[in-house]
Amino acid sequence: MKKRTASGNQITEGIIWKQLLLFFFPIVLGTFFQQLYNTADAIVVGRFVGKEALAAVGGSTGQIINLVVGFFVGLSSGATVVIAQFFGAKDEQNLSKSLHSAIAFSIVGGIVMSILGILLSPAILRLMNTPENVMADSTLYLRVYFGGILFVFLYNIGSGILRAVGDSKRPLYFLIICCFLNIFLDLLLVVVFHMGVAGVALGTLISQAVSAVLIIVTLCRSKEMYHLTLREIRFYRAPLLSLLRIGIPAGFQSVMYNLANVTIQSALNAFGTDAMAAWTAFGKIDSLFWMISGAFGTSVTTFVGQNYGAGKYDRIRKSVKVSLGMFFGTAIAISLIMITLGQYMFYLFTTDDTVIEIGMQILRLIVPAYATFVFIEIYSGALRAMGDVFIPMLMTCGGVCILRILWILVVVPMNSSIQTIMFSYPISWILTSILFFIYFHRKQGKLPAR
C-alpha cells in the first residue's frame, strides 16, 4: 500500500500561512455550498409557499436538526483529531482501525437517530412552543429529514476523515454537485409539483444521500493510508475509546450550544410567526459567518493535530497565531458587509416588511460582536487537536451555553423583548473568549520548545 512521506505532507512541512489558505478555501467553499443547499429550502418555500412554511423549515425544526447533527459532528471531531495525529505520525495500522471504527459509529448512530427522530418529532416540537399553524409542516419536515439522517452522518464523518489527512478539495466537489441537485429538486418538487414543505424535505434527503455515496466511494477507491474496506467496518476497541474520549466532550459541548439556542428559539416563538420567520431568515444570513468560522476551526484542528502527531510544536504555535490573524480580519470584514447590505439579504427570503424589520433588529445586535468569537473558535480547535477537550468543554458550556439559558430564564422575563433575548449572544462570547485566552496561553507554555 502506498504511503505518504514527510516531504509530501505540506501541513507539517510547508509555509504555514500559504498551506492554511490552500486548505481553508476548499473548506469554506464547501461549507458555503452546504449552507446554500440548506438555505435553498428556506428560499423556495419562503418565496413560493409563504412565511408559515418558512417558519416550519427553519424555526424549531432548524434548532432540532442543529442539535442532533451538531452532537454527531462533535463526536466525529474525535475521529478527525485521532486520524490527523496518526497521519502526522505515519501510523498506518492505527489510522486504518480508527477510520473503520468511525464509519461503523456513524452507521449505528444514524440508524438510532433516525428511529428516535421519526418517533419523537411531534413531542419535541410541542416542548418548544411551536405555533399550531406551523406544527403539521414542521413535523413532516423533521420526519423526512430524520428518515435520511444516516446519509448526513456518513457524509460528515467521511469528509472529516479526508480533511484530517489534508484533502479538503474532494468534499468541496461533492457538495457543489449535491447543492445544485438540491436546488433543482426543490424547484421541481415545490414549484412544478406543488409539494410544499414535503418537496424541500425530500429534495434535501436525496441530495444528502448522493453526497454520502460519493464520499464512501472515494474512501473505498483510495490507494492511500486512509483506504476504506467495507468488510473491515467494525468497532476496534482502542481507536473507538480514543474517538469517544475526544468526541464526547465536543459532542456534549455542541448539544449545550444548541440547547441554549433551543431555549432562545422557544423564547422567540412567544413573539409569533413574524419573529420566527425573521430569526429563520437571519439564521441563513448569519450562516455566512459560521461557515467561515467552522472552516478556520477545521483548518487549525487539522494543522495542529498533524503537527502534534509529528512532534512539531513550534509549528503549532505559529499556525495558531496565523489563524487568529486571518480569522479576526475576516470577521471584521463580514460584520461590515452584513451591516451595510443586511436589508437586501433579507429580501432573498421574504418581502414581508414586518419580518425584515425584526430581522434587522436582530442583525444589528449580533453581527458587530462576531470578532469576539474568533478566540473561542481558534483556541478550542487547537486544544482539541492536542487532545485537551475537557476544560475547553467546561469553559464553553459555562461561558456560552449555561449563561445564555440563565439569561433567558432570569433576565428576559424582567424585560421581555427580542432585543433582550439577542443580547445573550455578545455577552456570552466576550466572557468565554477571555476564559479561552487565559487557558490557552497557560497550556501553550507547557509545550516543549521544539
TrEMBL record:
Transmembrane segments: 20-37, 64-87, 99-124, 144-165, 172-193, 199-219, 240-260, 288-310, 322-346, 358-378, 390-412, 418-440
Subcellular location(s) per record: Cell membrane
Membrane topology: Multi-pass membrane protein
InterPro entries: MATE_fam, MdtK-like, Membrane_Transporter-Flippase
Single GO molecular function: xenobiotic transmembrane transporter activity
Origin superkingdom: Bacteria
Signal peptide start-end: none
Gene Ontology CC: plasma membrane
Chief place where the protein resides: membrane
Keyword set, alphabetical order: Cell membrane, Membrane, Transmembrane, Transmembrane helix, Transport
Protein name as catalogued: MATE family efflux transporter
